[in-house]
Design a protein that fits this description.
alpha+beta, three-stranded antiparallel beta sheet, 2 domains
């Protein structure tokens, strides 16, 4: 999880069917407190349901982040600073799997928001356990009309759009595969307000590098009033310098670079000292990233073993 959020530069990750306990949260805090912050709601059964927000502290300041449980283990609101006095409100949901419970869930959410004096969400994300259109199931089929109507009424009242479907009106893609039935469905979705959807980009559905039976849905939310901030300059982790494979590869690449310079006979726009040096640096960066990706899980596993001894 830590590696996925770092490599994909995910600021906020919503997790459903989390099955969390306080002991597990304490372990995450102990191992990743400098990088990750977790807000969670499990409900009364640690073996069923549960939702969580994981915040990347390298990308976000958590000082003014607010978390509110709406329906224990099923729905929770994260409020983060957006611009000036504005706030971005993200509702993480894990909807019931049964039709009756699912239909009632979409009525219970707005009722609880009103009862607890919580402002409507700017974004709803999670596992909806229902699709609105037959195109989102393979084989195609229509879900229970009463349940679909209940969901649509809630999102219409909140002025929310299915961002991925709005961007890809005819495309077929799915987030869950049911082995028992051999069926695919797009159960996991992100809804945004109409205004927020205008500047939302990079809608994706992809398999994360985490063992899960659901694919990950992502979107880049852009505040048009904020200045553009780039990805920053990549830096190599210090421990890579002591890695034997890296040093051997670095020396090999360096010798190749030196020979290329020595044997160079002419200069063109595409073949000169500057382009060759850039190629050398790119090769070194790729090597360092590859080794870091392979070694980081081993290092974390070793740290855990030492802590248990």
């Amino acid at each position: 999880l830590n590696q996925v959020m770092r490599e994909e530069r995910i600021a906020i990750l919503g997790i459903q069917e989390a099955h969390l306990t306080q002991d597990f949260i304490d372990k995450i805090k102990h191992s990743f407190d400098k990088r990750l912050h977790v807000e969670w709601s499990q409900g009364t059964n640690p073996n069923k349901g549960g939702i969580a927000f994981v915040i990347n502290k390298e990308l976000m300041n958590i000082n003014n982040v607010r978390f509110k449980e709406v329906i224990p283990g099923r729905a929770a609101m994260l409020t983060v600073p957006w611009n000036d006095n504005k706030r971005l409100r993200i509702l993480n949901i894990y909807a019931p799997n049964d039709q009756a419970g699912n239909a009632n869930f979409w009525k219970e959410i707005p009722s609880e928001l009103v009862r607890q004096s919580i402002a409507p969400p700017s974004v709803i994300l999670g596992d909806f356990n229902i699709v609105e259109d037959s195109i989102d199931r393979l084989p195609n089929r229509i879900d229970n009309p009463e349940t679909v109507t209940s969901l649509r009424e809630m999102r219409t009242d909140m002025n929310l759009l299915d961002g991925w479907r709005t961007t890809n009106p005819t495309e077929k893609n799915y987030t869950h595969y049911a082995k028992g039935h051999g069926s695919h469905s797009r159960l996991d979705r992100i809804y945004t307000t109409t205004a927020l959807n205008k500047t939302a980009t990079d809608w994706t559905i992809e398999q994360p590098a985490i063992k899960t039976d659901h694919k990950m849905v992502t979107v880049r939310l852009t505040n048009p009033e904020m200045p553009y901030i780039g990805r920053g300059r990549w830096t190599m982790q210090i421990h890579i310098i002591k890695n034997k494979r890296f040093m051997e590869g670095l020396i090999e690449k360096g010798i190749e670079q030196q020979k290329a310079e020595t044997n160079a006979t002419g200069r063109t726009e595409t073949n000169n000292s500057q382009t060759r040096y850039k190629s050398f640096k790119d090769d070194v960066i790729r090597l360092a990233r590859k080794i870091a990706k392979e070694d980081t899980p081993k290092i974390l596993k070793r740290i855990t073993q030492l802590e248990q001894e």
